[in-house]
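Notes for week 9. Today we move from apo structures to complexes. The key idea is that a small molecule is not decoration. When we ask for a structure prediction with zinc ion present, the ligand SMILES becomes part of the input, just like the chain. The input block below holds both the sequence and the ligand string. Read it once before you look at the output, and try to guess where the molecule might sit.
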Amino acid sequence: MIHSRHFSIKPLAGGIYALIATEQGGAMSNAGIIDMGGFTIIFDTFNTPQAGRDLREAALQLLDQPIGYVVNSHWHGDHVRGNQCFGDVPIVSSGKTRGLILTTQPQWLERMTPLLPQLNADIAAAAAAVKAATDEDTRKLLNVHHSYLLEIRESIETLAVTCPAVTYDKELTIHGSKRSARLLTLGRAHTECDSVLHLADDSIVFAGDAVAVSNHPLLTDGDPEDWMSALETLRNLDAVCIVPGHGPVSSADSITHMQQYISDLLALCQPYIGLESKPSAAGIPVPEAYMNWDATAVFERNLEFLLSRRLQ
Ligand SMILES: [Zn+2]
């Protein structure tokens, strides 16, 4: 069986697998492999072509059947930059998500390509820092950063932006001989349009970034209030197992935790509504409940977003 530096494979039910991003690889987010009976669905394609390549290989090895469809949950690069590895397979997303991939991803590549010489210098500096580290914890942290830069360089050098070819508006159901998979949009939440994949018979939802577990979710590209309602829609699916876009596989509790996080951040910013001078997001400490969550830098970005929004 494939052993990838980009992800670990977690079997969930007969022929359904969550692929959980490793800390050091080029995946950056989670994906799914679903046996539909006769063909496979891939849910999201990771942050880099190299991780996407391993995803394709894992799907073929695990299920030994054609890949029928690839799904993109939303436009963020860490969920779509492996698309090119599935060039012979229809890639499916909501119409809005396709539009956002088209208007963001080629520009990202255009912006990043001239930065390659700087990236090479950064990689050399990061490698030197790893060498110079005197304790194991620091070395580990620096190593993660070094690996991340290496993955990004490989990605920029090989990326060919590949857009979904099949779109839907609100929902789309794909039927196989073994199960049916329902794709539905939650509307505006983490982005302008987030889709989830519901496997009703197995009580599993692949939630994309509508749910993050033990990771600060990014609020800046969507709408926090709409996201709260979207999470209610998600809860009403009554799934026992939730595969988040970031973090480990979880239960419906993860939906409650997301709602709590969003309402906690809104409450943190509430006292500053109407004030003329904008407080510094950096001066607001991470609440105790989220101190151990990954992607800490996202917390500050979220506050900056909420504060500027509230003070408009
Ligand atoms: Zn995202």
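Helices lie at 49-63, 77-80, 95-112, 116-132, 136-158, 224-235, 253-269, 296-310.
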